[in-house]
Specification:
The structure holds two protein chains of two kinds. By secondary structure, chain A is an alpha/beta fold. Chain A starts with a helix and ends in a 6-residue tail after the last strand. Chain B has five helices and four strands. In chain B, a hairpin with a 2-residue loop joins strand 3 and strand 4. Chain B is elongated and about 65 Å long. The chains are: A alpha/beta, B alpha+beta.
Chain lengths: 427, 161
């Protein structure tokens, strides 16, 4: 919660509330109509946050600097979107409580009426409810979910029209009006950019499929650039779509090759409805690549610090890129790699790492495959590492594993800033 | 995500419960008094007016006398009472065709009454902090006092007719 981006969000909330209070004649007006005032404050802050959730989902590069990585941006996007809905859905509830016992008026807040302004607001709310139901409750296939999620833009449009047409503090107080429409405008532009412009104007590179290899349930795909190649750092990821039926949607994939490699290698576990379709890929097919994104390389440039890499399952992929980078750059710092997998067969990159270990003499490689060794824990780390506080820890794997290890490391004196994690499972 | 999902479902449940109660109760509600039918000139619709007529001391007095009925005070939209239709020539012997016949003039003002005082809220309804909840041509005293403290009546003074 300490990132600059979070502070900016708090400032936006405070400015919105400040504008709301200053739109009133005096504070007694707020106190005299508590339900109405609370309802209005909820609507304004909710609308401001809804707009910001669109900005957060825009994939704009500057967001990574503000929040510390695209995975963090998407996490905040989920939280901000959820909170905005919570605030907005309580707006009509509070208005209804304020209107009771006049049920004729209260009805307008829940269903379409002859009053256009209210109906636009109700329409926006129901659009939000339906799209969130499809996101949070009903599990749709990824492609379909992505399309339904775009309907959030309709909710923002209807909500903006509601704010524009309704008689309220926004309509009678110019500074609040300018502020709210500024935020809504930025949110709406972000939506337009993400849905309609990003594909063409985003950081796009054209590649072709060079090879596909199946390693148990992991597809290893190598791409070669057709024109320019994407310049990335070890540990970063890209969004890729393939010009093949069923694989047109952009997906985030971690790069498992070193930056010095001419092409891109991605290693994908066939988990979801999208990734299982990767078997349709053939050599020569076109892949569009957007990126790079991610801050999983943070601190790597400090070659004086020893590095501890902890991978769980397919979370090994960014470390493949990092290890290959260490090898090609002939770096001399000490590197410890703990590779956890549910079984030896599932540790599909064990052979590759073993080959790197032979060349990279400063690499200490520990296998923690199911049935052979216990899971990686701080006690396990302490056995080989000794002092923990002077090292950088990179953890990638299932969320529960990352959270547990991070908590244990902090308890053992490791500073939070020296623990670098990335949630690669975001939508 | 679990927390967000839980919050979403609780909020949705609240919304549906309160919404259902409100929808169910609206049919049982006693509507605010709509007295437009009692005083026909009251409604925010069409009234009869002679465009050339100007209020004179005499007809102002007539108006004063006529407005002893409180409903008339509240709901008559024109200070000048509508002339009675007559086929007789005017009393000052002017030719009948020198004065235009009464023409219906659209009056789109939204007038409400609070505590027996009329307010033209045509402009205010677009700036009202609590939304456009006005039922033009009705006595909104009960609703007003249900939502605002009495001190808010002072703010309404500027809209008094």
């Amino acid at each position: 919660m300490k990132s600059i981006g979070n502070w900016i969000l708090w400032v936006i909330i405070l400015i919105t509330l400040g504008m709301f209070v200053s739109s009133k004649a005096d504070i007694t007006e707020v106190m005299a109509t508590p339900w109405l005032s609370a309802s209005q404050a909820l609507a304004l802050v909710g609308t401001a946050l809804l707009s910001m959730s669109f900005v957060l989902s825009s994939r704009a590069r500057f967001l990574e600097s503000l929040f510390g990585g695209m995975d963090k941006v998407m996490k905040v996007h989920h939280i901000v979107g959820g909170i905005s809905f919570l605030l907005i859905i309580n707006h009509p509830l509070f208005l209804a409580i304020d209107a009771i016992p006049n049920f004729q008026i209260a009805t307008r807040y829940f269903w379409l009426s002859t009053n256009l302004s209210y109906s636009l607001g109700v329409g926006a709310l129901y659009t939000l409810i339906i799209t969130l139901l499809l996101t949070l409750v009903i599990k749709l296939p990824y492609d379909l979910w992505l399309k339904t999620h775009d309907f959030m833009g309709l909710a923002l449009l209807l909500g903006s029209l509601h704010v524009y047409t309704i008689s309220s503090d926004v309509s009678r107080y110019a500074p609040l009006r300018i502020w709210m429409f500024g935020l809504l405008g930025v949110g709406f532009f972000s939506f337009i950019y993400k849905v309609f412009l990003y594909s063409s104007f985003g950081p796009k590179y054209k590649y072709s499929v060079n090879s596909i290899r199946r390693l148990k349930d992991v597809y290893e795909i190598t791409l070669l650039p057709i024109d320019d190649k994407v310049s990335f750092l070890p540990g970063q990821f890209v969004f890729i779509n393939f010009e093949v039926l069923g694989l047109e949607e952009k997906h985030p994939f971690t790069i498992s090759s070193a930056p010095t490699f001419n092409g891109l290698r991605i290693s994908v576990k066939a988990l979801g409805d999208y990734t299982v379709k990767l078997n349709q890929l053939k050599d020569g097919m076109i892949a569009n690549v957007w990126g790079p994104y991610g801050r999983f390389y943070k601190g790597m440039s400090d070659e004086a610090k020893d590095v501890v890499m902890i991978a769980g399952g397919i979370g090994i992929t960014p470390f493949l890129s990092m290890l290959n980078n260490e090898l090609t750059k002939n770096l001399k710092r000490k590197v410890w790699l703990y590779y956890g997998a549910s079984s030896t067969e599932d540790a599909v990159y064990d052979t590759e790492i073993s080959a790197i270990e032979e060349k990279l003499t400063n690499l200490n490689y520990f296998r923690h495959f199911g049935g052979i060794k216990p899971r990686v824990s701080v006690d396990v780390l302490k056995e080989k590492l000794g002092e923990l506080s002077n090292k950088l820890f990179y953890i990638c794997g299932p969320t529960i594993m990352m959270e547990n290890l991070s908590e244990q490391l902090i308890k053992n004196g490791v500073k939070r800033k020296n623990i670098i994690m990335e949630d690669f499972a975001f939508k | 995500m679990k927390i967000i999902k839980t919050i979403f479902l609780i909020s949705l449940f609240n919304f549906l419960v309160v919404g259902s109660i409100v929808m169910a109760m609206q049919n049982k509600e006693i509507k605010p008094p709509t007295l437009a039918g009692i005083i026909p000139t009251m409604a925010p619709e069409t009234v009869t007016e002679i465009p050339t007529a100007k209020p004179t001391q005499k007809n102002s007095q007539i108006a004063k006398n006529k407005t002893t009925d409180p409903f008339a005070i509240i709901f008559s939209q024109k200070d000048v009472p509508a002339p009675k239709a007559t086929s007789k020539p005017s009393q000052n012997n002017q030719p009948a065709n020198t004065q235009a016949p009464p023409q219906p003039v659209a009056d789109n003002r939204c007038i409400i009454a609070i505590d027996g005082v009329r307010y033209d809220v045509s402009v205010f309804r677009n700036q009202h902090s609590g939304g456009d909840i006005f039922s033009c041509g009705t006595d909104m005293s009960a609703i007003f006092h249900g939502q605002h403290p009495n001190s808010f009546l002072q703010r309404m003074a500027q809209y008094k007719i």
